Structure formats: structure tokens, C-alpha cells
Amino acid sequence: MNFASDNSYAAHPAVLTAMADANSGAVMGYGADPVTARAEAAIRDLLEAPEAVVRFVATGTAANALVCAQLSPSFGRIYCHDDAHIETSECAAPEFFSHGAKLVTLPGEGGRIDAATLAQTLQVGAGVGLNGGRSALVSITNATEWGTVYDPDQVAALASVAHAAGLPLHMDGARFANAVATLGCSPADLTWRAGVDALCLGGTKNGAMGAEAMVFFDPARAEGFDYRRKQSGHVMSKNRYLAAQMLALATDGLWLDLAHRANTKAQVLGQAVVDGGGRLLQPVQSNGVFAAIPKAAHDRAQAAGVLYHLWPDKTVQGADPVPLRLVTAWDTPDADVAAMAAILRS
Amino acid sequence: MNFASDNSYAAHPAVLTAMADANSGAVMGYGADPVTARAEAAIRDLLEAPEAVVRFVATGTAANALVCAQLSPSFGRIYCHDDAHIETSECAAPEFFSHGAKLVTLPGEGGRIDAATLAQTLQVGAGVGLNGGRSALVSITNATEWGTVYDPDQVAALASVAHAAGLPLHMDGARFANAVATLGCSPADLTWRAGVDALCLGGTKNGAMGAEAMVFFDPARAEGFDYRRKQSGHVMSKNRYLAAQMLALATDGLWLDLAHRANTKAQVLGQAVVDGGGRLLQPVQSNGVFAAIPKAAHDRAQAAGVLYHLWPDKTVQGADPVPLRLVTAWDTPDADVAAMAAILRS
Amino acid sequence: MNFASDNSYAAHPAVLTAMADANSGAVMGYGADPVTARAEAAIRDLLEAPEAVVRFVATGTAANALVCAQLSPSFGRIYCHDDAHIETSECAAPEFFSHGAKLVTLPGEGGRIDAATLAQTLQVGAGVGLNGGRSALVSITNATEWGTVYDPDQVAALASVAHAAGLPLHMDGARFANAVATLGCSPADLTWRAGVDALCLGGTKNGAMGAEAMVFFDPARAEGFDYRRKQSGHVMSKNRYLAAQMLALATDGLWLDLAHRANTKAQVLGQAVVDGGGRLLQPVQSNGVFAAIPKAAHDRAQAAGVLYHLWPDKTVQGADPVPLRLVTAWDTPDADVAAMAAILRS
Amino acid sequence: MNFASDNSYAAHPAVLTAMADANSGAVMGYGADPVTARAEAAIRDLLEAPEAVVRFVATGTAANALVCAQLSPSFGRIYCHDDAHIETSECAAPEFFSHGAKLVTLPGEGGRIDAATLAQTLQVGAGVGLNGGRSALVSITNATEWGTVYDPDQVAALASVAHAAGLPLHMDGARFANAVATLGCSPADLTWRAGVDALCLGGTKNGAMGAEAMVFFDPARAEGFDYRRKQSGHVMSKNRYLAAQMLALATDGLWLDLAHRANTKAQVLGQAVVDGGGRLLQPVQSNGVFAAIPKAAHDRAQAAGVLYHLWPDKTVQGADPVPLRLVTAWDTPDADVAAMAAILRS
């Protein structure tokens, strides 16, 4: 039983099929092939953004770091949540790609920044002068690192604050599909209509092998971006196989279907936590369950060989209740979910 | 008909099968999965290098740039051929990854550096002091960017010069398989036994979708390398799909078989060039044909819609004879090869 | 009246004299001159560190950033106080020079990190894996950004924790002289005898025009450092003028004398704060006074045109009492100190 | 006798006096002081460029590298001469500051690029696509590294080619004063009126201790530049001492007077080379003499302890005639010049 991460799980068969379908004949490399063109168009359609620039890379870290570097100079300040993936989990890739941008982190309940905190922080940031660097970008994650979501109004409030300060808004959407599945809104409502300027739309955690889309809603913001991607080694020469993955996910709503499946499994686990006397640290709004469960339940899970991460890190070892994170994927076996739910309830 | 690049072509079915075989169940991410372990072992076996550190990335630019950055400080001088891929075709990725290393290029017949030229250049480099930076690395490409190969003795001569100056030797082996197929030597003879310290062993141009191995023969040289790879966004969370590609190529000699096929097709085209009154700019020793052909033949090829690159670039347009590059892949259709040969001969 | 910063003030006449003395005849450039040799020796003597590598640069930001980059790879984690100058006031220079190192900040009373907090943070840092980067360096500032000092025992406790984790300890000593003047200890006791591995010893804030020494107590840690300094444009071709400044300060204890003068002036202001009903936010242990003073006193000072910074930034405008920072220099006029003291007391 | 470099020599007394004059009282730091304002204005006046943005740094490497990084993205191609200082003598600082820009070097007689060669190279550069990076900047040195000068027409021809390709033109003017002194033109004619977009105007080699001006004729090109300078540690907190040096040079034509003196001494040496049967490798047009002299003369000079560099490097040791470089400064003793001339003639 593996609830450690959604990237522990496999690719959807339709993804593999799309790759196989792309696997014949000679095409021009580096993205000048028809599959790439179709996949980029499919993402634009999905987002109702016919003018957007869409590009693909194979990892989420690359996607976020490239977009951060595109939107921030080396002396820029990038505002994000204390627990943002770009801050905690990308080995300082945004700093590396941007050549030194400073991540300025903000607290916020449930992994979400609120607009008032952002406004206050940007006010401070506007006064730091040469010493502190120049405010450059606001970045949020949706669904967040705590499994919660920003709804379109919350995004719009943040975008409004960012734009008032002259800053673009980036959304790390490694689990964007899970957020949309929960909110039931349109992808456009959650992004550009709410003021998002650049989106990283994840495929890897949602049924792809390794594929992420980067979207600049205003093409002017993508100026020179292909060079940046190339220089960092993230232009695939046989790009069709990367594009095929995103194309498969964007076809017939597969991306949303897979996210729904993962979210549903998380709901089952979340309910089991509560039933078993544990406490949800955050409401379950995507495919992650953040909970504190009785040590006895944790011990049973360990004895059964269940894999998951203590939260926020191993230093909580020995606590009672035990804080932890359970992540589900579209293909987490229902039997495993049921078995874990039983452990949590017992 | 496409002779533009080997990366215009497809992945071998066995590669796709290996990815499909890897596509079930939950495994730990970031390379801590059994497919990755098997693939790394397969590469070590292939190279008869049981102690080597092997890692995978999805692009050749990433592979080369990461290895360069691992082996050179920002103030390092990296010696390579005037026409080295790292100099001409990677958008200054080595400079980006290393934070400023200087590529010092050397002339050399057929894309090859010779040992005497290298020795002389290193002697100059030893005297440039703070102004010129510190000599750090020698990098060669095998097969070269001109389709020729270094044999083990030539590699050993260069390694000897590099090592005498205290520098490691890197081999960009994007087409390493093609070189081995031509030389008929063992991979070990062409690398570590000849003094190569780090190898980039390409899969992408040889039947993979996008997979390259980086090999450090002395594990000490790989110190911290996984962090470097992660920070640049080149650690795949679902690494099994990357590893599966290299595993397929390394199984039952597929990699060599595919390279043989591509090389054979190039031989056919090379002979046709000569037969048709053209001139080979270099002997055909891998899967690339560099030739000057009569303008009439070029015009016929253009009329037939054949894709290939003028060489070294478009500014030769209008020349007679026309210098060009023809590249073959394992799956370039034999009919296309025959048709192009006929055009060249006519 | 200017209490805004110690770098608002002038250079000591002896510094100017030393520069004039150096200003004749031809010498070799880039530090290969006799004044540089003497100045480096003088700093080694001052620190009782005959083996140390000493180099000079013109700015404190360069000194800190170069040392950080020397001691941390791009994927390193550099631990420092929340209010460390390298975090708040150097425009992300450490990140720029190191190509992406992550500054991990720790809270701590009075601008000081304590050993227990550090130990706990390093324990977390040891578990973050590829995602979080590799622990590389601990950096402390002495005197701190809050005007307090670490004594040798406190430094030793931190060094012990850092070394136990395999990390070197860096001391940002932009106001090292002020700390030594307060503590009355030997520079060696406060640095290498307490476990400091690298020191930035400031001159600029203490009577120089623009001169800082960087000291690596173990020469092995300085490997390649001159190239790093050169590549960042911080090797002066006419280095004698930079070295002359540090030589003047190191001669006949001038550096300590100047620091004593500045510290004494700060004591006067600190007492006046208390006398006037204000509150010292931190004890006055160097040349900075951090206090909250009655708004009426602040208004009087503003009316008198006194320059100083609100603390930590302008967003405190309007508070009562008003938090602020007053900084003194060796040459802050005593009349100004007295006048400001009167305002504070009134 | 020292003809090794102009930076072996001293600062002019007027420079020291200006620094002493600036050395009193408290001013705001980081360039917000009256001396800096006056010095920036003086440089604008000197260049008849009232709108230009002028900033100072302490080293020529910093000046060039900062301007290059300001005008080129990391994926940019910077075109310069094979022997450009930014290519050969700055330890890859432009690459470091820009995070990877590629210096593409061009041959050219006398250290000068000609417009036809540039046009041809830019045409190639326009076709290299993602592989080769994006053309970003043309950089020339005036006076050149071979002691020759570009006149305003030559500069204008290059600017015209650069601008036609959409690229700005940078002039490395470490010895700009020497060029102006030779040409007798106005600084404006040699720079912005001829199409130069950014100038590094050297002081260090011309009587300063360590001071260079960076000039952006169009303020829009300086956007964010102060942050860039700060992040690289090149904003002096006590900027008045840096500015005072440039102010002294710009006052009453001192900069031109000093350059004239140095140039005159070089003329004497150049004539002596010819008289003594040596050969001038380039005409003497500034303060450098590049010549091949009889080995006997070289041996005599060595015996007399004269310092100078073999050219282009030590590997010419043993040649007859001996190629070398002799550099003069404003304060190279006339007696030394006479003595060396006698050696050359004998």
C-alpha cells in the first residue's frame, strides 16, 4: 500500500497509447512536429485561451523554475507561501534558474496566502530598496501543498493585490486538475479570468509519465522563453512523446476524470481518519489527506507495511497523535484505500 | 524523406514495450524504483564498470551540461573542438549550468582534436592566470560532429595529455553506439580503459524517446551530483519510464544493433555521393554523411522534398557543389535511402 | 545629525595617509605588490593566524557573498539568522554568487542564533533530501544586526554544532571590531579558537573608505578562491590602495580604537533613551542602538532634521513608541551625540 | 623599469586630493551623496549626454561584465574580437554575470572588427536558432587590445550593422581616454553620435586608484541596473570616494591630459623599436606598443630588469625576433622611457 506520493503511481493507458500512436515516421525535432502542435492547441482550448503560449517540459521542478526565471530577474523577490513547493521541494531550482532570485515566504492557513497578508508583505517589499531586491512575482500553488484549494474569488483577490503592485501572478498547478475537479469551475475561471498570468499545469501527478505544460496567457511574457528552456536542457529533441502525454490527458476530459478518481479516494481516507478518532489538519479538497491519527493506528499501518510520509518531516516521529500525509492517485487500488481506511478506523 | 537528424525518427518498439512493462503498480519516486536500479546496473555491465555511478536524464544537452558543471567550476576552462556540440548546439547550456565556465575551442581535422594540439593548448592555458581562468576539463565527442570516430588509441592519447595536466576527460557520446558499431571495440576499451572519466551515453538518437545516461567511472567525481541534477529540474519523479528506455537499449545488444542499422544506411548514401561525382568531406564512420554534392543533385533532392541541412549553415546556399549533412537513423526507411541514393547518383 | 548608518561617515586620516604613502612608483598589479603583502600579513598577525589565507575586497556584500559561494555549492543550504545581513540587505548576492544556494533562516533573540535552535534546524536539514538541498554552511554576524555580540563561548557552541554536522562556520564581521571592543577578548579567541572557519573582517564601517578582509583559517578552504574573486570583478588591478586601508586600520590598534569610539557614543545614546523613558529593544553592545522611544521624542528629532531609520522598516510609521535604529561611527561628532541625547531625554 | 601594464602605475595627485576633499562629514550612503551626483554630472557633461545614466564601479572587469549582463540574457550571443579583453582577460566574468551568455569572437586586423566581417557573422548568428542562442550584443574595445583605435566612422559602421540586426553596441573604453587623445575627436563623436549604446569609461588605467564609469546613453537600457550592481557586490556604501576619483579626472580635462602623456611616451618607444631594427606589429595609436624586437635587444632589456609581457603569451619565449607588449602610463618616468628606448635602439 503506497500513499507516499501521487508520483509513485503509473501512467494511464491512454497516455501510453498516445505515445505509441506518435511513434512512427520522421518528423522535425524540438517541437516542430504535428503532435506538439495539437497538444499545445488542446491546452489552449482547455483553458479557453487561444492566444496563450504553451510549452511542455518533463518535470514539475523545471516548469516552475523556468517560469519563475522568465518572470523574475536575478535580483527579484518572488513571494510564495512558507510551504510552497518552490520553496521547500525543488532544491532551490528557482534560485538556480533565475540566478539568485529571493523567495520571500508568507504564512497562511491551509497552505493558502490571503490577500491582506500579501498586500502587507508587498508594502514592506516596496520599501526594501537595493538591499532587499525588487519585487518581481507572486506565486501560489493550487491545489496547495496542504491539499486545500483556492477558489476563483480567492485567486482573483490575490491577483488584484499582485497586479496593483505591478507584479504578475504565477500558479503552480502541479495538482491543478485536482483543484478544478473539486471546485467544479472552468479552468479559465480559475486562471486567466481570475488574473493568473502564468500557469504550470501538471500532468505527471495525474496520469502522465512525465509531462507538464507551462502557459503564458499573455504571449509577451513568453519573450525569449524557448531559448531559456533550451539552455537549461529542457527542450526535448523528440518532443512528440512529451506532447502526446499532455494531448492524451486533454482529450475527452481524461485529466479531470483522473483527478476526480484520486480526489474521491482521498475523501474515503479523510472520512476514515475522522471515524477513527483522528483529526484532519486541513479539509480534504484534493488528493491529499493531512491528518493527525492515533499512534495506535499509525503503528498498525506501519506493521502492515503502508507507505506514507510523516508531516511535515520525520522529526515528528514518536508523537501521539501522529501527523502525516496520505496521497492518492487515479490508480491507487480501491482495495488499498479500503484496507487503509479500515486501519484508520480500527 | 528525412535526413535532417536522427532525432527526427521514432523510438524502437522494444523501448515502448519496456515502458509499458514498467507501467504498473506503485513504486517510490525519484529513481528509487527497481527499473531504475536494473537500468543503472545494465549500463554498468555494458561498460564493464561495476563501480561507476550511472544516472539518467531526458536530453543530451542536460547530460552534457550537467557533467560539465560537475567537473568544472564557474571559472573553469573547458577544452573542446571548434565544432563540438557543447559549443555550437546547446545554447550555452554548459556555461549556464556551470555558472560561467569558458569553452576554449580547438581546431582539428574531421571534428577530432589531436593530442599535440591539445597539449599545446593546455600549455597556453596553464599560463593564463586569473585573467583566463583555470583549466578544468577536456571534452571530446565520439562519434564526432563530423561523423568520424576516435579509436581507443586516439582517446587514450588525449586522456594522457589531459591527465598529465590534471584534467579529467569527458566524452559526449550522443552517438557513442554508432562509434562502437564502427570500431568493433568494447565500450570499456573506448572509455575508461582509454582514460575517459565521464561519459554521456546517448539513447535519444538511437531508438529511445528521450533518454541519456551519464556515467562517472570514479564515484568520487559524482559527489553531490544528484543535487545538481535535481536543482536543474532533471530528476524525473517517475524515473522508471526514463530508465526503462535505457534498459531496453542495453538489453540483448539492441543499442548496437540499432547503431549498426543506421551506420549501414549512411554507408549507402556515402557511396552514392561518390558515385554521383560528389565529394565526401569526411569519411563515413557513423550515421552521418558530410558531403559536397553537385548543385544539380541538390536541386533534384529539393524538388523531391528531401529534408536535410546545408552545412555548416544556410549561408552556403547557392554554392556549387553544395555542402550538406545527411543523417540516418535505425529506422530511416530503406526505400528512402535508396531513393536518395538514386538522386545522388543521377 | 546623522545616525542613519556607520557608512555615512568618513575615512580616518590615517587611512588616507596610508593610501597616499602607497601612491608612488610602479608595482605589479592584482595584489602582487608589497603593500598587499604587508596588509595580508598584518591581518594574519592581528588574528594570530599565520597560516590563514587573507584577501581583500571593496564591499561587505562582496566579501560575504564570495565566502558563501566558496563554502556552499549551488544546491547548498546556508543557515543564518532571520535578520542576517546576508538575508535582508545584500540583494540576494549570496544566491547570485553561489548560483542558487538557499538561505535557511532561524529565529533568535537579539539577532543571535542559539546552539539548540541550530542543532534542531540542522537535524531537519539533514532530512530534506534532494528536495531541500544539502546543508552547506552556518553563518553568523558579530556584532549582530541588532547591535548585540556573541562571546567566544557562544561562538564555540555554534561552531561545535555546525562542525558536528560537517558544516563550516562563517562569521560576517562587518562590525567585528565593535564586537571585539565590547568583549575585550582577542580576535583569535572570537574566531578560529572558537571554531570559526571563515571571517569577513570589515573595514568600511570602521574608518576605511571601502575595504574588507576575507580570511580562511584553513588554507584548503580557499582553493580556487582567487579565480572566484576575479570572475566576479572583485580583484582590484591596483590592489595596493585597497590593501593600504586595511593596513592602516591594523596598525597600532587603530581598528580597535575607532570601534571603541563608536561604541562609546552608542552607550551615551542608549543611556539617553532609558533616561527619556524609552525602551532599549536590545542591550547596547556595539555601535547600534535599537530602541522604542516616545513619539514626542521622535517628532522632536524629526523636527531637528536628525537622520535615522525606523526599525525594522517604514511600516512602523505612526507607532508610539517609535521603534528605531541609531548608529554611531568613530567620527560621529560628540556634539551631535549630545544634542541627540538631549532630544531623547527631553 | 616597468612597461608591464598601465595598472602598475600610481594615481594622480589630483585624484588623491579629490578623495581627501570628499573625506569629511556624514552623507547618505550607496551613492546618495553630493560627490556622486557631481561626478555623474561631470561624466554626462564630458560626453554631452545629459540624459545618460552614469554609474561607477571599482574595476574594469565589473564594468564590462555588468554592462554585458544588462544587455544580454543568459542565452545571448555577445559578439567581440578574438582578442577582446572580455574574452581573454576577465576570467569569464561576462559569462558569470550574465549566467551563461556566449562570447562569439571575430578575427580582425589590429584588434579591430570590421563591419563586413561583423555583418557576415551576424547573418550566421541569425540562423543558429535555439541551438546557438540569440544574438544580443556587439562589443568593441577602444583603444583596442592591440593599441589601435577605431575612429568615429569605423564605430559608426559597426553600430550601423549592429543596429540593423537589432543589437546594441557596447564600447569597452578601459583606454577610451587614450583613443580620444589620439583621435582628437569629441567623446560624443566617438560614442553616442556614432551609435554606441553603452560605454565603459576607464579611470583605473588612467590615473585613478580604481574607478570606472558605466554609461547608458538611453536610460531605458539601464532599467534595473542598480539592483544588478548591488547584487554583484559592486555598489560601494561609501560611494563618494569612488566618485571623487572620476570627478577629479573629469575636471579641467585631466583625463585627456594624462592620456596624452601616456600616448606620447608610447610614441617614443615605438620609434625606438623601428630605429633599432624591430618591427611594429601594429601602429602605435594609444599607450601600448606591440612589436617584435631583435632577441639581442630583448636580452639586454631582461638583463636590465625591465618588466613587460611577451605577446601574446609566454609560449613565444625563445623566438627571434621577440614579440612583446610595452605599456606606458601617465607617470611612467621619462628617464625609464629614454633608457628603454636606448636599449631598443642599441
**Oligomer category:** homotetramer
Taking the sheet with the most strands of chain A, its summary is:
7 strands, mixed
Q: Whole-number average pLDDT of chain A?
A: 97
Give the helix tally of chain A. Answer: 15
In the CATH hierarchy, what is the architecture of the largest domain in chain A at level 2? Answer: 3-Layer(aba) Sandwich
> How would you sum up the global shape of chain A?
globular
The CA-CA distance between the termini of chain A, in Å, is: 17 Å
CATH superfamily of the largest domain in chain A: Type I PLP-dependent aspartate aminotransferase-like (Major domain)
Total number of beta strands of chain A: 11
The computed structural class of chain A is alpha/beta
Protein name (chains A, B, C, D): Low specificity L-threonine aldolase
Family (chains A, B, C, D): Belongs to the threonine aldolase family.
Subunit structure (chains A, B, C, D): Homotetramer.
Pfam families (chains A, B, C, D): Beta_elim_lyase
